[in-house]
Each structure stands twice: as C-alpha cells, then as structure tokens.
Amino acid sequence: MGIRRLVTHWSVPENTSWMIYGANGYTGELIAREAVSRGHHPILAGRSREAVETLADELECDRRVFPLDAHAATFLDGVAAVIHCAGPFSATSDPMVRACLGSGTHYLDITGEIAVFESIFRLQEEAQSAGVALIPGVGFDVVPTDCLAAMLSQALRSATELALAFYPRGGGISRGTLRTMIEGLPHGGAIRRDGRIVSVPVAFDSRTIPFSCGERSAMTIPWGDVATAYRTTGIRNIRVYSAASRSMIRRLRWFAPVMQVLRFKPLMKLAQTVAARRTGPDQSSRDQGRSYLWGEVRHDSGSSVSLTMETPEGYQLTAMSAVRALEHVLQSRVSAGTWT
C-alpha cells in the first residue's frame, strides 16, 4: 500500500498555543515548516537563541529560548502541547516529559530509542493524574511500522511472532540520527522474546526480505518497535530488520567486539563530535527518496500473514506525521495516558 500526501482541513480550538522544542535542529525545522504550511503558528523553541530566532523570524512564529532544567515547566505556561525534537532523547526526553507533567502539557516526540519508549510507558498513572497524553515516536520512528504491526495483528489475532523490516532508498541521515546511532553501538541489538526485551549481538539475525520493490538482505536492529509494537499488538516475540548488504552484515558482526571501545567516554565524545558536522538530506533527496516496509505475523500452528507498505522518505514522513499527530491531540481525540 502507498501513502500519498493529502490536503486536509484540520480543526482545533482557536488561540491554542503549541510548541516545537528543538525547532532549530534538522528535523525540528522540517516539522516547523510543515506546520506553517498547514496553517499553524507554533511557538519555536530550543537552547540556541540565534538559530531559533532566525527561523522564527522567517516563519513569523513566536519563540522561546530555554534549557531543559528544573525550571523548564515555567516556559510551557499556556502551551497545550509540545513536539519534542531535541535529541539525543536519552538525555533530553525525561526533563521535557517532567516539565509537561508539571504544566499539564501534552507531550509528543520523534524518538526511536527503545529505552526512552519504555521509560515513558512506565508513566501511565502520572500522565493520567496530570491529564496529559504522552506519545513518543510520532515520526518515521515508529509511525509506519507501528501501523503495519497493528494491521497485521488484526489480520491474525492469534499471532505469536511479529517481524518488521524497512528499506530506506535515497535520502540520508541527519547528524541527530547519526549521533543517536553512535550512542547505541556499544549496546548491541535488542529483540522481544516471550514478552521481554532481551539484548542480542549486533546483526543477531539476518534474512532476505521481500519488499515491494524487490528482495533485500536485512539484519536485526534495536528499532523502537521492539518496545512499541508489543504494546500496540500484545505479540510477545518481535524482531525488527533493516536492509543491509550481506558484506555490511559480515563486517558489523566482525567488528562488534571493537564497538565496545565506544563505552570509553573520550572516544564516544570524539565520535559524536565528528557526527555533529553532518547535515541531513536536502529537499531534492527527500522528494526523490522512498521508504519500503514489510511485516509478517505468524502463529505457532504455521499460519501467517504478510503485508508491504511504501511511504515518502523518512524525514519527509516524520514532518507530516508529527504535525498530524499533534492535530489529533489538539482535537481532543486522545485520552490522558501513555500511547504508541
């Protein structure tokens, strides 16, 4: 199935203020531009005054500059919802979530980090008490794969295994995404086995995936669906694969022990510094890129169902899906609590 860009009419309460935090980053800026193109005027916020004000002036939006510290909640006064885009989320998510709980502000983010998903899901009761919705992962991580998982689960309700895979063709990655990937390298992979998230080696499993654009070799990666798909579907065994050449899979397995050196903080800091020089794909690359997804559910009896999906390029989709998720929340279609 494909996803095409739709021109829709949204309706939210008048004078509703909402914020993009990390709007000065690569993906945050894309989301800000998508929001303005849909008639919104979000508050643009972040820690870098010059970058935030430059973008806010261009898009004619209000701005707020503040760090994520114990006083962050005061800067959310009058803000109905936040799309949090400032990574790495392992460091920034918790202070923003706490600020949102303290100010009664709905929280959305674009993380793909398993640990961040799990930490937010543990706040169900606090979110309900505060009357806010906490919704991590409203970008390419993990909207299309989570939708695919939900459809597969409905097609085979007794499924005991779920496999998901994606193949991004064209485009590229931003410095924020690269920094998050580097941060996770020393920790290897992750799958869900019998309902529990377990650590596995890098490229633990590999297989050939029949994407709609053709077959591709792929390897398991610690993608956010290891956390989210379980809560969406209840399926107890989950693996997520990313397309990769067989030679790359071999190299990653060979170098896996070497990756442990990144636990040495000076080396990690150096790698992150190098990653910070990177820029994301340009407009032409985003327009031409596509993402191909595949999913399959199985039952112990041997029955199975599989589906494929094609979407816009990942960052393009993230900007679209994040704003639509925000609109959904502001239309009061989401109850207080933690959600995929």
Describe this structure in words.
This protein has 340 residues and is of the alpha/beta class. 38% of the residues lie in helices and 24% in strands. The chain contains twelve helices and 15 strands. Helix 3 links the parallel strand 4 (81-84) and strand 5 (106-109). Helix 4 (114-121) crosses helix 8. The protein is globular, with a radius of gyration of 20 Å.
Q: What is shown here, in short?
A:
This protein has 340 residues and is of the alpha/beta class. The protein has helices at 26-37, 49-59, 89-103, 114-121, 124-130, 143-155, 175-184, 225-233, 246-255, 265-275, 283-288, 314-330; strands at residues 18-21, 43-46, 63-65, 81-84, 106-109, 133-135, 161-169, 189-193, 196-200, 206-211, 214-220, 237-243, 290-298, 304-312, 337-338.
Q: Unreliable stretches, pLDDT < 50, 5 or more residues?
A: 1-9
Secondary-structure element string: EHEHEEHEHHEHEHEEEEHEHHHEEHE
User: Helical stretch count?
Assistant: 12
Give the strand line-up of the largest sheet: 3-2-1-4-5-6-15
Instruction: Give a short account of the largest sheet.
Output: 7 strands, parallel
Provide the gyration radius in Å. 20 Å
- How many strand units? 15
Mean pLDDT: 88
Percent in helix: 25-40%
Oligomer: single chain
- Overall SS class: alpha/beta
Shape assignment: globular
Strand proportion: 15-25%
Distance between the termini: 21 Å
Fold topology:
Elements: E1 18-21, H1 26-37, E2 43-46, H2 49-59, E3 63-65, E4 81-84, H3 89-103, E5 106-109, H4 114-121, H5 124-130, E6 133-135, H6 143-155, E7 161-169, H7 175-184, E8 189-193, E9 196-200, E10 206-211, E11 214-220, H8 225-233, E12 237-243, H9 246-255, H10 265-275, H11 283-288, E13 290-298, E14 304-312, H12 314-330, E15 337-338
Parallel strand pairs: 1-2, 1-4, 2-3, 4-5, 5-6, 6-15, 7-12
Antiparallel strand pairs: 7-13, 8-9, 10-11, 11-12, 13-14
Helix pairs in contact: 1-12, 3-4, 4-8, 6-8, 7-10
